[in-house]
Amino acid sequence: MKIVVGGEKKEVADGITLSELIELENVETPQYVTVSVNEEFIDAESFGIHKLSEGDEVEFLYFMGGGR
Amino acid sequence: MGRHIQGVKVKGMKITIKQSDFDRMYEHALSQRPDEACGLIAGHESEDGIRSIDKIYILTNTDHTNEHFTIDPREQLMAVKDMRSLGIVPLGNWHSHPETPSRPSEEDKRLANDSRASYLILSLEHEDEPVLNAFHIEGAQDSRTVRKEELIIVEG
């Protein structure tokens, strides 16, 4: 099926989960990545069970923070 | 107002920011005191490795404190989409240190998870003499390597 990851169209296996996509995309430090699907943020606890669907738009956003 | 833009020359680690963007960042950071201010930087990178900031994004610090910042992820998402529509790329982020120098704190280093990013820190320690530095941070979380980038203010 076709999905969009970071603005780029990708062909992935039907029913791929977010966890599998994170691995497939070699996302660095995934524990600090926020994921949105169709502009909805997904809880990290759900990455392993959240299956993607045809046409989904996925964004990986690095947590941006710091302190003095 | 004095503007101290510091940096040392490191081959391939040069980044430019427009005067107008610096002014906007500074004015916003002043207005947010005592809280830290934050946002994203985006632009393009030339073949010789010089990074040019074409746009700064002023985003919400959801922590609303003078000790920490977290960029609102929803605003971050909108900013990334805006970059894409403009044909520019994310270059990193910026934040202010209202009371401390322009250098990455231990927390800044710990949370610098994108080794491709430039991290800009604007110090308001001396209100009328803001200091802006750019840093490259990489390596394992417990042994980060920090290098200062050459930051240049350009007209615009």
Structural description of this entry:
The complex is a heterodimer of chains A (68) and B (156). Chain A contains 1 helix and 6 strands; from the N terminus they run E-E-H-E-E-E-E. Chain A is 10% helix and 37% strand. Chain A has a 5-stranded mixed beta sheet with strand order 2-1-5-3-4, with no helix packed on it. Chain A has one domain: Beta-grasp domain (Ubiquitin-like (UB roll)). In chain A, strand 3 and strand 4 form a beta hairpin. With 68 residues, chain A is mainly β. Chain B has a 7-stranded mixed β-barrel. In chain B, strand 8 and strand 9 form a beta hairpin. Chain B has 3 helices and 9 strands. Chain B has one domain: 3-Layer(aba) Sandwich (Cytidine Deaminase, domain 2), CATH 3.40.140. With 156 residues, chain B is an alpha/beta fold. In chain B, 21% of the residues lie in helices and 39% in strands. About 3% of the residues of chain B have low confidence. The interface between A and B is medium-sized, with 17 and 32 residues. Strand 6 of chain A pairs antiparallel with strand 5 of chain B.
- Given as residue ranges, the uncertain stretches of chain A (5+ residues, pLDDT < 50) are none
Strand order of the largest sheet of chain A: 2-1-5-3-4
Largest sheet of chain A: 5 strands, mixed
String of helices and strands of chain A: EEHEEEE
Instruction: Figure out the total of helices of chain A.
Output: 1
Concise structural overview:
The complex is a heterodimer of chains A (68) and B (156). Chain A has 68 residues and is mainly β. Chain A contains one helix and six strands; from the N terminus they run ββαββββ.
How would the blueprint of this fold be written?
The complex is a heterodimer of chains A (68) and B (156).
Chain A: E1 2-5, E2 8-11, H1 18-24, E3 33-37, E4 40-42, E5 57-62, E6 65-67
Parallel strand pairs in A: 1-5
Antiparallel strand pairs in A: 1-2, 3-4, 3-5
Chain B: E1 4-5, E2 14-18, H1 19-32, E3 38-45, E4 50-59, E5 68-70, H2 73-86, E6 89-97, H3 106-110, E7 118-123, E8 131-138, E9 145-154
